[in-house]
């Protein structure tokens, strides 16, 4: 039988049976602890292991998945939290202002960006980049390139809301100078453009 004799085969089979017996038949090691560990069922850990960690030798913890440190006190996140985020529990990061997502990998603007604005990092700070017709920290203010005169307010891109007595795209037409009353109908004054 070559270099493999009858005695070697019996030893090999006996070793496999013993190994199978140890793995399946009731090792003293807790579930999930490999047999290569030196496990002492009477071991004491002070301070105790946290987060379901197992004391395998005196003052030596075997940490459950997602935790690390001498007493399994610290959560670990994989992938690691980005942009200065702190791992709270496995897979959950606390993100600093301006960042979000499971691992703090997304730039976020507090309150979001309105009117089609996009949140992006500018010199490490989250900022809304607004479309050309909007401005403000959240793109909440409309722009009226023509300007709104005489106390008018820009309410939408290019649209002014004019105060009483003023009309026109920029609130530039004085109603009292350019219109004359025709008659009062049901509480509304109807006006006609007076000849210039």
Plain-language structure description:
The chain is mainly beta and 196 residues long. Among the domains are: 43-76, Laminin, CATH 2.10.25; 144-193, Laminin (Ribbon), CATH 2.10.25. Helix content is 12%, strand content 31%. It has two helices and 18 strands. The protein has helices at 6-24, 175-178; strands at 54-57, 60-62, 67-68, 74-75, 86-89, 92-94, 99-100, 106-107, 118-122, 125-129, 134-135, 141-142, 153-156, 159-161, 166-167, 173-174, 179-185, 188-193. A two-stranded antiparallel ribbon has the order 1-2. The protein has a two-stranded antiparallel ribbon with strand order 3-4. The protein starts with 5 loop residues before the first helix and ends with a strand. One of its GO terms (biological process) is blood vessel development.
List the helices and strands and how they pair.
Elements (H helix, E strand, L loop, with lengths): L5 H19 L29 E4 L2 E3 L4 E2 L5 E2 L10 E4 L2 E3 L4 E2 L5 E2 L10 E5 L2 E5 L4 E2 L5 E2 L10 E4 L2 E3 L4 E2 L5 E2 H4 E7 L2 E6 L3
Antiparallel strand pairs: 1-2, 3-4, 5-6, 7-8, 9-10, 11-12, 13-14, 15-16, 17-18
Organism: Amphiprion ocellaris (Clown anemonefish)
GO cellular component, one term: cell surface
Protein name: EGF-like domain-containing protein
Which strand order spans the largest sheet, edge to edge or round the barrel? 1-2
> What is the residue-mean pLDDT, rounded to a whole number?
78
Q: Report the biggest beta sheet as strand number plus sense, adding barrel if it closes.
A: 2 strands, antiparallel
Task: Report the radius of gyration as a whole number of Å.
Answer: 38 Å
* Helical/strand content category: mainly beta
Number of helices: 2
Low-confidence stretches: 7-29, 183-187
Span between N and C termini? 124 Å
Give the full name of the CATH homologous superfamily of the domain at 144-193: Laminin
What share of the residues lie within helices? 10-25%
Q: Compute the number of strand runs.
A: 18
> Quick one: overall form?
rod-shaped
């Amino acid at each position: 039988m070559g270099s493999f004799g009858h005695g070697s085969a019996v030893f090999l089979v006996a070793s496999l049976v013993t190994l199978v017996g140890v793995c399946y038949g009731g090792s003293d090691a807790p579930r999930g602890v490999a047999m290569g560990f030196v496990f002492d069922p009477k071991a004491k850990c002070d301070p105790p292991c946290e987060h379901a960690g197992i004391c395998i030798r005196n003052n030596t913890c075997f940490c459950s998945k997602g935790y690390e440190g001498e007493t399994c006190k610290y959560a670990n996140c994989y992938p690691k939290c980005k942009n200065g985020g702190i791992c709270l529990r496995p897979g959950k990061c606390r993100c600093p202002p301006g960042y979000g997502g499971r691992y703090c990998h997304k730039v976020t603007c507090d309150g979001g960006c309105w009117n089609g604005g996009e949140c992006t990092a500018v010199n490490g700070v989250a900022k809304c980049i607004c479309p050309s017709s909007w401005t403000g920290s959240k793109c909440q203010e409309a722009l009226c390139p023509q300007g709104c005169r005489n106390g008018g307010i820009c309410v939408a891109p290019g649209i002014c809301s004019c105060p009483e007595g003023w009309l026109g795209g920029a609130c530039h037409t004085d109603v009292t100078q350019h219109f004359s009353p025709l008659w009062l109908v049901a509480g509304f004054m109807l006006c006609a453009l007076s000849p210039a």
